Amino acid sequence: MTTVAVLDYGAGNVRSAVRAVAAAGAEVTLTADHDVINDSDGLLVPGVGAFSAVMAGLDNVGGVDLIRARHEQGRPLLGICVGLQVFFAQGQEHGVQTEGIGLWPGAVTALEAPVVPHMGWTQISAPDDSAMFAGIRDERFYFVHSYAAVDPPPGTKATTARHGSDFIAAVEDGTTWAAQFHPEKSAAAGARLLRNWLDSFGSDAPSA
Fold first, then answer.
1. pLDDT digits (tens, 9 = 90+) for 59-94
2. How many angstroms separate the Cα of 45 from the Cα of each of 63, 111, 162, 166?
3. Is 118 known to be catalytic?
4. How many CB atoms lie within 10 A of CB 157?
5. Residue 163 bears catalytic tag
6. Which one is catalytic: 71, 72, 81, 163?
């Protein structure tokens, strides 16, 4: 069976992500053990709360190096919500700038919208050849956030959504995927996305 490690760095409310990936067909372990993570087929990085707090938690368990290594090695990696945000170079919250993991250039900044946080179901706009959104390009996904990236990382497939203005809803960078929304809270569409991720481990793209 496909194995997935969910990185345990102190983030709250990760059990729903563990259950959702297990329901998609993987054997899932919530862990910060580097050996277990390195032996797992996929690594999921959850994220809830502030950019700076997530980075501090990752630093505490050596997660930054784990994530960078997996990205560089081309091994399956999925970031969710702030887990997407910290893949960028910087986060800017409440006047404080925090260095991110830096898989991609650019900064995560406050949403430019009349109502913040952005909370609820929103339509995404995915590339035609997206493997991440195979079979679900016209679906809505569940977002809860006040900050976002707006510039697509070079050389990636970026999916956008709109709340006041356009922002990055998801990124596909080879075997590194990330979603600003919560697949585990996005009903059937989110479940399909997680299956797409697991399917991608053994092929270039899942079936549509």
1. 999 999 999 999 999 999 999 999 999 999 999 998
2. 9, 22, 24, 24
3. no
4. 20
5. no
6. 81
